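We modelled the chain as a single entity of 268 amino acids. Its sequence is:
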Amino acid sequence: MSFSINGKTAIVTGAANGIGLAIARHFADQGANVMFADVDEARLKDEIGEQAEDGNIRYFAGDLREKLTLANLLSATLDAFDRVDILVNASRQVCRSVPLSASDDAVEALLHQNLMTSLRLSQLVARRMIQQAEDDDINTGMIGSIINLTSIAARRTHPELMAYSISCAALDQMTRSLGAALAHDRVRVNGVAFGSVMSASLQSVLKDHPEYRESILAATPLDRIASASEVAEAVQFLAAPASDFMTGQIITVDGGRSLLDPVATAAH
């Protein structure tokens, strides 16, 4: 089976920093055409501005919570590369919320950012993938792959991450539902649930609370925090032909964390 994504076209959201940026860069290094998408235009320009002038990298800046922005993102990708084969929904927001004092706004905001944005973009891109296959008269084989980034917080109980956990659990169910719904159309939908990864958000947390590092390591059997590149490699597997018989699955990249994760230890 092939792990190659060379020549494929991918949209990666949340691509201005952290895990999304690592995935987008990894895909580009593997020969894919990549649209880096994020709300932070200044950071996108800093990270890939010069590289986006030609070759296999472009970037798109906009608030992906807006439906029109999602349509414009897809149009920009088609203008640049003529097609889309892979979507990675890596844009996500993490915030702390205590159940007895959590406002409805916090839950609603994370459901909008982490769930609805991914759902709407997945629907747009899936329709395009199906149209491409019809236009190209491709009648066999997989025609596209959608990968959602989620978290082991969806399956663990951490009271201070209530809103985030709810949004991730909903994203897991969306992944399974779309995986089943789009299987007949030969579009695969899978997810990567991770534990503690050295993302931008975790770096910020550890800067303010360095004591968290030891508790994370103690709760992780492999005794370390993952690099963003390790998540990127798992995402590549789900994007590549090697995983063509997988859909609606959530694979876990957490160093064994979910095997014995105590409730009191934060996942991020």
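As a brief sanity check on the tokenised model: Strands lie at 9-13, 33-38, 57-61, 86-89, 144-151, 187-194, 250-253. The radius of gyration is 18 Å.
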